[in-house]
Amino acid sequence: MRNWKSLLFVMMATMLVLAACGGDKKSSKSADNEFGLVKKGKLTYAASGVYKPFNFEEDGELTGFDMEIGAAIAEKMGLEPNPVTNPFETILQGLVANKYDAIIGSMAYTKKRAEQAAFTEPYYYSGGMIWVAKGNDEIKSPEDLKGKKIGVVSQSTYEEPAKTLSDDIQYYASDVVALQDLTIENRLDAVITADIVGFEAIDNGFEIKEVGNPLWVEQPSIAVHKDNEELRDAIDKALQEIIDDGTYEEISMKWFDRNLLDIDLEDAELLE
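That's the Transporter substrate-binding domain-containing protein sequence above. Prediction below.
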């Protein structure tokens, strides 16, 4: 009888210990996921790292407009910024797989992307534009691209419009490399990318020029996991705070000599 009571006591004690461990584990998990973050205390955000001047590597460090906006937002949230890189063509898949908390990498909002992620308010506006070599006088409008070789970044918002203009598409991992190829004879006829990126390339000595006006206006926004509305709302709040206190304009002026949110959207065709 005494042995039976001893065994029962041991079993009950074991169950209490397991229950206590389970409770601690649940509490720890909750603590480690404030705002739904992968690791407490850090905001891990991804970019391609090859989209100068928005996000690129310099002296072994990630820098650029996107990186500084991400750092400012993380600071407002009381978190440590932790930028990482991921190829743009799989960056959304990485978010879905919880490899990072957010994408702050010049990803424009589209209805299709919103099926896989939740998006904040735009943190800047840009226009999709056609670029050609400086000496190219044949291409003067989108209609002139029929049968021409167009360079675009795979899975970017420029891919589908390019397909409607030509059947000959050359894919790139970097817009900068595509723009460089414009200046090499018989490599490319045109590139479709953001107006800001093209003008930055010209400032860096690229012999290219724009064709007409932007085809549309994009709304680059911050993407988070589709079910993590708490994190999206917290980032939106922090974004508005850096806009209100002048931090946003300071960063924008540093990189572009203008505020990228200052745009007249009244007659603009927004990309959806």
